Amino acid sequence: MAKDTDNKATPEDDMTPIEARRLMEEEEAKRRAQRDLDKEVNIFDGIRDRDNNPVEPVKLKGSNKFCFSCHKGVSCWNECCYGHDITLTPLDILKLSRSLYLAPATFLEKYTVPALWHGADMPIAKLRVKGEDGSGPCVFLDEKEGCTVYENRPVNCRYYPLGMATVKLKEHKGPEDFSFLVREKHCKGHEESKEQTVDEYRREQGVEPYDIFNRGWVDILMKLSSWKVVGGPGGREIDQRTKQMFFMATTDVDMFRRFVFESKFLKTYKIDDEMVEKLKTDDELLLLLGFDWLKHILFNEKTIEMKDEVLQDAIAAARQADAGSEKPQED
Ligand code: SF4
Ligand code: SF4
Predict the structure, then answer these.
(1) Is 153 near ligand 1, meaning CB less than 6 Å away?
(2) Which of 58, 99, 158, 261 maximizes the CB count within 10 A of its CB?
(3) pTM of whole model > 0.90?
(4) If we measure between CA atoms, which residue out of 44, 25, 34 comes closest to residue 233?
């Protein structure tokens, strides 16, 4: 994460003209591919799809108003907590497991089911419902008292009845988030007269602290979805081990911390001493480091830097491998 701005030497400085040209051609090919790939991608939503077509196809801005109120007095109290399809974000898993005094691995085993992110074939976790046929109550629902993890409920539960989508349009520099209204027939909260803006509702539901964490995770999934049409980042399919790494870094901070401190991670990447000290106890910081590291290993982004000596060794090894493959084959 730390950047060494004094050292201006780049790997390109040590390259032969042929290697430099090859690198430039590869970079240009990547840029061309990315230009073709940038398109509208709907990546993240909060729909618990039980009724047909519950989404109002209107993009809502933060200042747009809608009528809605959910309280114990509504006739549909708790109905939305049955048979849901809720994807847990990395911060949801962290907050829920900590609030239940469980290690993330134990939390995942008890309260979630493994799933694949539909757009990118990447492993994620969904909140479990009781029963066999998928229509039962949420594992955290108490029929009388309602949600037993309300303070730490998932961001999808906070958002409802709003859905959130992120789009990346060709003509736009970065992704754009917007909300939309989900009107399921069973939800009587839409008949209440309380009016609020999208921003007011988000504030009331405590969504904002989740934004920065969701952004990092969604960005990765969104890019993977885009790259999928050409077989994966740089045209290469993502191998099983990388998928496991993705799952570890986005669902299990305890395991990721062990990975950071017990593997070659700290010998490989430039992370300053102060940050290393914080990473020992700061789970949220560790999540953000995980996103940076994933962006680096998946898309070669400079979100985290290799130590100079490690980089030089890697270049030398790549050259050696290159030279070996270019040797004429002996009969
Ligand atoms: S976590 Fe709480 S609010 Fe969300 S579905 Fe379960 S019981 Fe309902
Ligand atoms: S009003 Fe909607 S969100 Fe509230 S309990 Fe009823 S179904 Fe759930």
Answers:
(1) yes
(2) 158
(3) no
(4) 34
